[in-house]
Amino acid sequence: MKTKFLLFVSLLSITIFVGCSTNESTDAAANSKTITTDDVVANSEIDASVDDISIIAEDQYSVQQSATSRTSTPVKSILPLCATITTVLTNDTYTKTIDFGVDGCTLPNGNMVKGKIIISFSKNFLTPSKTISYSLVGFYHNGKLIEGSKTITGELKSTDLLATVHPVTTHSVDVKITFPDGKVYSRIGTRVREMVEGYDTFGNWEDNVFLIWGYNITTFPNGAKYTFTITTPLRIAMSCKMPFPVKGVIEVVKNDAKATLDYGNGDCDKLAKITLNGATKEIVLRN
């Protein structure tokens, strides 16, 4: 009996030690003042997911607006034919369910999505502003499970980026992202998207160019919080049919550490430059 008791105490001590060591290791990682290339690239992947969801929601709003207003140049959806779209009008609100199925669909920019996005907006397209709400149901983006909701508000106005009146949308983000390896990230923030080219050709998405600015706070699997601030607006060219900005700079801050991600000079490629600890290196971005 004494031997069994001593064995139990020994095992309990080992369990407590391992548990404490694991917690201490996690806390140390979260409080670390280092930023890695993988950290920055992971955030870029989340950006691509958030932006694609916004584009899908805005696409369906524009398609419905075009059909309802019977414009001379109808808007052609950018969604692939494998997406099933169901539209219901209740009172004064459109609800559209975009179902990409369990096998998934490939978007024009090469990203793979599956599951459903449910969006809603007012049937009154004559107001100077718009509000689009959406929720995600079993939605995956390149294998990552995206959960949460989002509100998009938009209006036509002049800004510091472009004096001509143009479409400006503000995106409130509150999502959880589970990567294929099981690691869970969460994000809150605001992204402002300005359509600076292509807004006068209503029926053509491919000539659209967006400038994006804003910030987000992303909590990584180890509990570390990173602040990502767009210091030079990100340029998205729809004609590139790529899931990455072609230009722009993001500043990354974790505790006292800082890094930058520079998307380049406008070329349609997957290249970017990361500056960490005074050293700059070129990387290939991941979908």
Oligomer description:
single chain
Q: What structural class results from the helix and strand content?
A: alpha+beta
Principal-axes geometry comes out as globular
Number of E-state strands: 14
Percentage of β-strand residues: over 45%
What profile does the largest beta sheet have?
14 strands, antiparallel
Q: Report mean pLDDT, rounded to a whole number.
A: 87
Span between N and C termini? 59 Å
The SSE string, one letter per element, is HHEEEEEEEEEEEEEE
Contiguous low-pLDDT stretches (5 residues minimum) are: 1-18
Q: Estimate percent helicity.
A: 10-25%
H/I helix tally: 2
**Radius of gyration from CA coordinates:** 22 Å
Keywords:
287 residues, alpha+beta, 14-stranded antiparallel sheet, 2 helices, disordered N terminus
Model description:
The longest helix is centred in the N-terminal third of the chain and has 33 residues, at 37-69. The chain is α+β, with helices and mostly antiparallel strands. Helix content is 22%, strand content 47%. It has 2 helices and 14 strands. Mean pLDDT is 87; it is low at 1-18. Strands 1, 2, 3, 4, 5, 6, 7, 8, 9, 10, 11, 12, 13 and 14 form a 14-stranded antiparallel sheet that branches.
